[in-house]
Amino acid sequence: MADKLNAVKGMNDILPPDSARWEWLEDKVRDLMARYAYRMIRTPVVEPTQLFVRGTGQTTDIVEKEMYSFEDRLNGEQLTLRPENTPGVVRAAIEHNLTYDGGKRLYYMGPMFRHERPQRGRYRQFYQLGAEVLGHPGPEVDAELMLLAHQLFTELGLQDIRVEMNSLGVPAERQAHRAALVAYFEQHQDVLDADAKRRLHTNPLRILDTKNPAMQQMAAGAPQLLAYLGEASLKHLDTVKALLDACGVRWSINPRLVRGLDYYSHTVFEFITDQLGAQGTLCGGGRYDGLFEILGGKPTPAVGWGMGLERVLELLKEQGTATGAPAPDAYAIVPDAQALPVAMRTLQALRAAGVSVQMHAGGAEGFGSMKSQFKKADGSGAHHALVFGADELAAGEVTVKALRDGQGAQQRRPLATPQDWAATLRA
User: Fold this and answer.
1) Which residues contact 114 (CB under 8 A, 6 or more apart)?
2) Residues contributing to the annotated binding site for L-histidine
3) Residue 256: closest CA among 164, 342, 332
4) Topology given in CATH for the domain delimited by 330-424
5) What ranges do the domains of the chain cover?
6) Which of 55, 107, 138, 141 could share a disulfide with 87, CB 3.0–4.6 Å?
7) pLDDT of 82 over the 90 cut
8) pLDDT tens-digit profile of 118-171?
9) What confidence score (pLDDT) does residue 244 get?
10) Which amino acids are annotated as binding site, given as ranges?
11) What is the CATH topology of the domain spanning 18-169+229-318?
12) pTM of the predicted structure, to 2 decimals
């Protein structure tokens, strides 16, 4: 016998009934995105490696340590499984000139890949929901994106999620802050760990986000970017605050919330929970006005966020929110093979009329007793049983028996016109 093959560590199968929770969440997302007038974009899972080197950052952990990269055996091109999707969206927008007739509101859902240690809510293949607004420079779309994420969490019934934000200003303001930051960290060389020393002159903002407890007190005393913002940047931030206030969304300023890449500007934000341990960031985003130029496009304002769907599902489970697919409307009891043609024709008509029906399937030894079929019908969670017995078929009818409300009540329905009584089966 051949050796058993298993999935790659950190890349998980999503099986029924758990897959129903994913479908439930995805349906909620699609409905909400349509109400906000965001449209789906689908980009390739594999992109040129340089897209992420330039778009995610040469000095980030993602590019340095976590990407799945390989050489195309046909032409030698360097390719990478996407670790995130914002660079791919911007690449597509440039390639297809998406913003030629004005701004675009886009969203995506799909798998991303990072080679890191698998842990709760953090896997090597993970699924990300993202929303991006391209071509609009105003603070109102920053606020709209934050309201979009907030509304999704509200409609999912999630509790105790806090909103933190900050402003990164514009490049000149960040440069002044960066110089002050480097000078400050150079005065505390004895506290810096190896990663911080490596990033001191390449990406000092990342040091502010250190997870090293021995460095956190020192990092907390570092110069804050807010002190370097000019009038226009402060006005942009104040407008975002005012719009969130007007919509009843509570927020707080976190001066340590940063992005280490130069193409970010103005608003950055995160939605955070304390119920998932170290993986508490559910959604993170910000304005990245400089990314189009870095990827070879014309200057184009842009802002967006990404959300880990595994973490959202973990939090739903943690908070006891009921999710998943509804039970079928009906379960078809089929006593023998002779009843199959009529039963299947009737079920097709019911399904075409919007009724969900699960049909009992026989095995090598037949369809089993009526008692065993009724037991399976009850276990399916169906609201009704449809009985295609010999007496019913002889009369041109099917028995509809209630399995939940009005349990045991039953009546005959005509086989010739299932579309006329289909509505009575829908739960």
Assistant:
1) 62, 66, 67, 68, 83, 124, 126
2) 84-86, 114, 128, 132, 259, 263-264
3) 164
4) Rossmann fold (3.40.50)
5) 18-169+229-318, 330-424
6) 55
7) yes
8) 877 789 999 999 999 999 999 999 999 999 999 999 999 999 999 999 999 999
9) 98
10) 84-86, 114, 128, 132, 259, 263-264
11) BirA Bifunctional Protein; domain 2 (3.30.930)
12) 0.89
